[in-house]
From TrEMBL:
Residues 68-218 form the RecA family profile domain. A motif (RadA KNRFG motif) lies at residues 255-259. This is DNA repair protein RadA. Residues 456-484 are annotated as: Disordered. Belongs to the RecA family. RadA subfamily. It comes from Bradyrhizobium erythrophlei.
Amino acid sequence: MAKSSLSFVCQNCGAAYNRWQGKCDSCGEWNTLAEEDVTGATSVPVSIRSKRKGRQFALESLTGKSQDAPRLSSGMAELDRVTGGGFVRGSVLLVGGDPGIGKSTLLTQATSMMARAGHRAVYISGEEAVAQVRLRAERLGLADAPVQLAAETSVEDIVSTLSEGATPRLIVIDSIQTMWTDTVESAPGTVTQVRASAQALIRFAKKSGAAIILVGHVTKDGQIAGPRVVEHMVDAVLSFEGEGSQHFRILRSMKNRFGPTDEIGVFEMTGLGLREVANPSELFLSERDLGSPGTAVFAGIEGTRPVLVELQALVAPTSLGTPRRAVVGWDPSRLSMVLAVLEAHCGVKLSGHDVYLNVAGGLRIQEPAADLAAAAALVSSLVNAPLPADAVYFGEISLSGAIRPVAQTSARLKEAAKLGFGRAVLPESARGEAGGDSGLALNPVGGLTSLVAEIAARGTPRGNRENSPAEKNATPTRFRRQEG
C-alpha cells in the first residue's frame, strides 16, 4: 500500500512544495498554498521510476500535406463561430462563466440539437439531479431530444459507461470541480483532484475521438477556478459573459487550438432559452438615445466580426476633493490615459469633474481603437454638444495626442454603412486603407486637438447657468471664445 504523504499545493498553478510558505515561487501569488494528501507516484522512489528505457519514435520534417481537422456542427451558428466552425473530434473545451449566467442552458441546447441530428450526445451532471436537468429541458422545449442524461461524479464510472456502445460525439461534464478519481485521495474540487480528473477525461477524449466540454467555476475576479494548468491541458477555453441586468450574453474564445481567438458569439436570453443574434450591432444600438450629449458610436472588431456599440459618458462637477472615475465595460487605465491626454494637450480641465463611462449593452471592449470614441463622448458631455447621430468613431490615441491607425478599417466602415451611418471619424493615416467604396463621408483626424475644437465649437450652455463657474469651466480653455 502506498504511503500517504503531505504536500502543500498551490491553488493557482498547481505547484507542490514540501513545506508551507506564504508566496508561491512558481506563479508569484500569495497565500495560495493548501495542504493536501498525495499518494501514488510521488511516494515511489526515483530509482524505481527511472528504470524503464524510453522507446524510439520517428521524426518528420515541416514539409508535407496537412489535413484540416474534421468538425461537427453543433446546430448553433454562434457557437460554431466561436469554436472555429464546430467541434473537432477528440478535442476538449473548457467553458467558464459566472453562476447563473446560462452555461447549463447553452450546453443543454447544444446537446439537444446534436442529438436531434442523429448523433449520440451525453450530458453528465455533477451538481444537479436528473430531475432538475429534465425540468430545464422541458422549460426550453427540448424534452423530446434523445439526449443521454446521468448524474455522476466518479471519473472511472463515467469513462467505463461511455466506453460501452457507440462512441459519443459530444460529452458535457457539468462541472469539472465536482469530479473525483480513485487515483487521488484529495477531496473533490482541490487542485490535485481537478487536475487528475481533467487528465483522465482528456485521455479518454483523445483515445475515443469524442468531443468533451468541461464546465468550470469562476472566481470573484472572473477567472476560471482551479489550477491554471487545466487551461493549458484543454484545446479551447471559452468564457460566457454577461450582466445580470442585461438580456443578452456573449460567448468569447480565450484560447483555441483549432480556430481564431478573441472571437465572440452573441445570444439573447429569453424565456425559452438562448436565442442566437446574427447581427449584434443592431442589438447593441437598438435603444440609442439620439441627440443626447455624451454618446458616441464606436466601430470595433471582436475577433473577425465588426461590432458597433454605443459609448456613454457623463461629466459632472464634483464637490469631493478627489473626483470619481467610474468605468463599465472598458479598461480603467485607458480611461485615465485619455483623460490625461485631454488635459495635457487639449486644455480640457477635468480635475474638478466626476467622470463616468459606460459601454451600452454590457459588452466588454478590449481593443485600444475605442480611445477616439471615448474621448469624443467625454468632450461632448463636458461641453453639452451632441455628436452627429450618423457618425462612427474609431482610432487609438497616443500619449502625444496623435491619432494612430487601427486594423481592419474597411470592415468597420462596411458594417457602419450597412447599418445606415453616413460618416466616420477615423485616423488620418487610415484614409488610404479605407478607400472610397464604403459609401461613408470620411473625416480623417490627425490629432485629438482638432477633434476637441470641433466638438467644443458646437457646445451650448446647460440651462440658464451661463455665468456660473461650473459652466465657465465646461468649455476647454484653449478653445474658449474670447469676449470683445
